[in-house]
Amino acid sequence: MDTVTQAALGAAVGGAVLGRRLGRKAVLIGAGLGTLPDLDVLIDYGDAVANVTEHRGFSHSLFVLTGLATLLATFTQRFAAARDISRLRWWAFFALCLLTHPLLDALTTYGTQLWWPLEVRPAAWPVVFIIDPLVTLPLLIGVATALATGNGQRAPGWGLALACAYLMLAAGAKTLVTQRLEPVLAEQGLESAPRLVQPTPFNILLWRATLIDGDRHHEALIGVFDGDEPPALETFRRGAELEPAALATRHGERLAWFAAPFLRYEVQEHAGRETLVATDLRLGFPGFYPFSFTLATRDGDTWQPVAASVQLPSPQRADRDALSRLAGRLLDTEPAFCTSRFVAPQWHIAIPGHC
């Protein structure tokens, strides 16, 4: 999630745990702890693929943050002026302020390495977009009330309760749209295809489903208020014939660990050379994928891995039009909206009966 939300979450948790005893201090310390894990963005790991895939790594590990909370609780209990607060209470304060950060991040699409340093893929159970005002506002109102009144516990507690209720509502909305998608997948023989269902920007009423089917990937938009209208699939090429060459590079292998199978491969002209590029299909929107990386350059009939991957700029064409049309789809004023309008023609596969 964004920094404002994470700071507000940490502040609200801090107030709920120790607000009665520490007042505004609990809220302010909690805000600082809530933003601490994201300081890893200041680390340069040497190239674009490493920077993206290492983010939400060690600093978001439940093991690392639990250990840090234990150290902070031990130090604070020994040296803080508030001698009546037990070490266990301090530990709960630090642990909850720190651990709620990666747990909330794991409810978005990006992927969070909760179990670092274990070699398991990043956790992602997307039920909320990385920025959602209805998660953030209750937390901010609770925190602002606590800072204004000096009562550090009650208002942050209510803010937390409302934010959690919204996340539960989001999980229910995802279940609903997934159930609507199932018959369409069964009809198309895609029941076992890898899928990702996630909310579209800033809301939980319109959801995007992405499915991988060999060299093809399918997209569907599903609204909570679509009723009995079956979701319409759009089909695109994925460039799977380039996947073996991509996986032969360390950057391609790392991206596959991070995002596979939701990757698209293509050859682009970059720095005057034919370049193998991988794009993360999970993040962004068809036609507006922000995460594309160079993997290798062509040398005769072979691909030579690049020493340092570069992130390519994302296309900006018609982005306002796309967002406005998404809003129209959300409000059901443009029910026939298809994402293929914003995708380069060579990627779209027109199939009768599909969007």
TrEMBL record:
The keyword Membrane applies. The chain crosses the membrane at residues 88-104, 124-148, 155-173. Keywords: Membrane, Transmembrane, Transmembrane helix. InterPro entries: Transcription_regulator, YdjM-like. The keyword Signal does not apply. This is Inner membrane protein.
